[in-house]
Structures are given as C-alpha cells and as structure tokens.
C-alpha cells in the first residue's frame, strides 16, 4: 500500500547473540551451584561483579571471531582451528586480565567463539545461518579434536585428559565436535527464551558435565543429573531451585558446563529464520 514503509527483515548477528547469551546466563537467578544475582554459588573466587567485568572484556572479541571466519573462509577446514586458536588465547588473556586470573568464561569463549567463527564462514560463503548450519559447521571444524587432544595423549596432565581416560568423558571438545549435540537434541526442540530455568534443567539432566566430575566425581555428576530429571518429571517451582542451589553449594558442586551450553542454546535458539548479513560486513 502506498505510503507504508517496507519492514526490513532482521539480519542475524551471531556476535551480538553471543554477548547477549552471556548476559542472559549471568542474570538468570536462582541458578543452582552457579554465580547469579543472589549468591556466588559454589565459587569462593567469583561473584556477580567479576562476571560482569569478564563479559565486558570478552564481548568485543566475538565480532573479531566472526570476521576471522570470513577472512579464512576459503582455507581448508583442517587449518581452521590453528588459525583461530591464537585469537582464542588472546580473548582468554583479556578475560584473565579483567578477572585478575580467575577463569570465569573459558568454556564460553571456546564454544561461543566457535559459533561466531562458523557464522563468519557461512556468511562469506553465501550459506544460510541457522541452528542446523551452525551446528554442522562447528562439527566440521572440530572433527578429530577428541582424538588429537584427548585419546592420543596418555600423560593425563590435565583434568580433561584424566576424565577421558578414566570415565570416557569428552567434555567441551566432544560437545563441539558433535556440533553441540546435547543442545540440539535436548534443548532446541523445547526452546523458549522465557523459560531459561527449564532449559538449564534440561541440560543439567543429561549433560556429562566435566565441572561436576572435577568437584564431585561421577557420583556428584549422577546425583545432579538425577535431581534435575526429578524436577522436570514432577514439575518444579521457584523454591525448588532455591533448595537445589543450597544443596549443590553444600556439596561444592557447580554445573559450569551446563551454564556454557545454556549460552550456546541461546545463540542457536535465537538465530532461526534470519536472512544472511550483507557480504563483506565489517
């Protein structure tokens, strides 16, 4: 109709979604065993203010990861991680400077950095950006990571190596190599950005969270998974999460891996049905 302005479709911005995801995860309260607006969870060296500084330090890097994906889009997938790694390390160093050495978001930098990098590759190659294409792209970029960085090493010098050889857990590397299969299978079919507690419980119920294993062993992991499954099956209210928070704090358990995947879920859940960003966008 004459005189009416055409409504331009929203263009996806994965870097902006990644930053938004970190804020959404931080502000969600209560968050059992994790830092939120009410308490520090099971963390004596972290609080809400520290996470704010960490997010502020990390966020400018997301657009750089995306631009790197564009820049290196024609390079072989086998070369991509080695090209991305120095930038990831630099982002981690910015985080550590802001937090005075406390690891607040290393898992988030890894997962969200990969998603931003993948988005840049997809956009530069003229491919649609959505949850499925991002998942597939990240999986392709990370193929062989578990074998190279866990299975082929016998030193068990890191927590990840020990958990792989003792329990077969692949941690953040396995999630990335699978294209964040836990999120794709157990959260996205039920995605609701206004029900983030429910989304977190869905992750906690199934995620083989390496953070829980580090703090409470396999028993701690299984107990938290079962607790979340019970809440989901019988229905839960706000007070149930407060009680769960108290119990996890008493046992020094923190589902940090599920918190990272909740941020991944936000990005994948919110990037549906958007057109491609203009090619060459800086």
Automatic annotation (TrEMBL):
Keywords, sorted A to Z? ATP-binding, Nucleotide-binding, Transferase
Q: What is its EC number?
A: 2.4.2.52
- Does ATP-binding appear among the keywords? yes
Per its record, the protein catalyses: 3'-dephospho-CoA + ATP = 2'-(5''-triphospho-alpha-D-ribosyl)-3'-dephospho-CoA + adenine
Q: What Gene3D superfamilies does the entry give?
A: Triphosphoribosyl-dephospho-CoA protein (1.10.4200.10)
Similarity-based family:
Belongs to the CitG/MdcB family.
- Protein's name in the database: Probable 2-(5''-triphosphoribosyl)-3'-dephosphocoenzyme-A synthase
Organism from which the protein derives:
Pseudocitrobacter vendiensis
């Amino acid at each position: 109709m004459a005189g009416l302005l055409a409504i331009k479709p929203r263009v996806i911005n994965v870097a902006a979604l990644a930053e938004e995801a970190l804020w959404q995860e931080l502000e969600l309260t209560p968050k059992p065993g994790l830092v939120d607006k009410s308490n520090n969870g099971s963390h004596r060296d972290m609080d809400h203010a520290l996470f704010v500084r960490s997010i502020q330090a990390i966020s400018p890097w997301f657009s750089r990861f995306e631009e790197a994906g564009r820049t290196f889009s024609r390079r072989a997938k086998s070369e991509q991680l080695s090209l991305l790694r120095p930038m990831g390390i630099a982002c981690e160093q910015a985080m550590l400077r802001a937090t005075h050495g406390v690891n607040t978001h290393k898992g988030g930098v890894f997962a969200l950095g990969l998603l931003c990098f993948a988005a840049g590759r997809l956009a530069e190659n003229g491919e649609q950006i959505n949850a499925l294409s991002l998942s597939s792209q990240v999986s392709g970029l990370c193929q062989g990571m578990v074998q190279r960085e866990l299975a082929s090493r016998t030193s068990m010098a890191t927590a990840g190596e020990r958990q792989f050889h003792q329990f077969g857990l692949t941690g953040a590397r396995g999630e990335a190599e699978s294209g964040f299969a836990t999120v794709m299978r157990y959260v996205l079919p039920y995605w609701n950005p206004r029900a983030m507690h429910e989304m977190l419980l869905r992750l906690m119920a199934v995620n083989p969270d390496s953070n829980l294993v580090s703090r409470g062993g396999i028993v701690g992991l299984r107990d938290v998974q079962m607790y979340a499954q019970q809440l989901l099956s019988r229905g839960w209210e706000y007070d149930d999460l407060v009680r769960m928070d108290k119990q996890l704090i008493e046992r020094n358990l923190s589902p940090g891996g599920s918190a990272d995947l909740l941020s991944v879920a936000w990005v994948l859940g919110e990037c549906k049905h958007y057109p491609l960003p203009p090619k060459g966008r800086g």
